[in-house]
Design goal:
With 247 residues, the protein is of the alpha+beta class. The strands form three sheets. It has a four-stranded antiparallel sheet, with helices on both faces. It has a two-stranded antiparallel ribbon with strand order 1-4. It has six helices and eight strands. Helix 2 packs across helix 3. A hairpin with a 3-residue loop joins strand 6 and strand 7.
Length: 247
Amino acid sequence: MIDKRLVELRKRVRSSRKIVVDTILEDHSASICIVCGATDDLTKEHVVPKWAFDNNQKKFFVTAINGIGQSYSKTTLPACEECNGHLLGSLERYIEQLFRHSDVTQTPLSDSDKQKVILWLELIDYKFQALDLRRKLKKPKDGPYIKFLADYPVGVMQRLDLSPSKVFSMFRNSLKRLEIADKSKRLNSLVVFSTSNENYHFFHQANEYIFVELPQCKIALFYYINKNFIDERSAYESAMNIIKKVY
């Protein structure tokens, strides 16, 4: 069942990608489904699923350029009822059950399941990029309000080392990744390891990497979005260097 749903998801992304990207880039606050571009029957799709952070209202992330916290529970994007409940919901339920019933210290995830995890993480990356294009720059923490920057998307201001066109290109490519069915060449870019930490952790650099720690499942994930490795060990060592700096 899940494989059929993912085929449908890829078809929707492929057929609607241009209109979704063009619409959001023209109007960052456009009320359209972020998957298929529909404007009817819109629901709220959480950027990070509620089960991942145990629906804890106190869990939040901070926008680097603003220094402003935003709770995960209130961080949503528009998605039509069909895409949200039928397609994205199926993937979320599969991943949640997979993690809750997996002991990676005893039995590693199969290659097939790793590919689904990769898709799930790429989807989160896409949603965060969409979110950052929709959010306007607010008053920075302990800083002055700059009126002429007020309407700039956070996604552009967070990547001052990149031109706006490059930021938009990254957004376009993040959606295009969701169309790719075979992710077998990306397996070494995913690090899956057990964790005994008691708290949920998440950090993410658009188009570079994403880290999710799920204490309720005793599992942590690090995925290099746009970098390949010759083996899992190389990816693990590289990921640990970043985790030690950012964690």
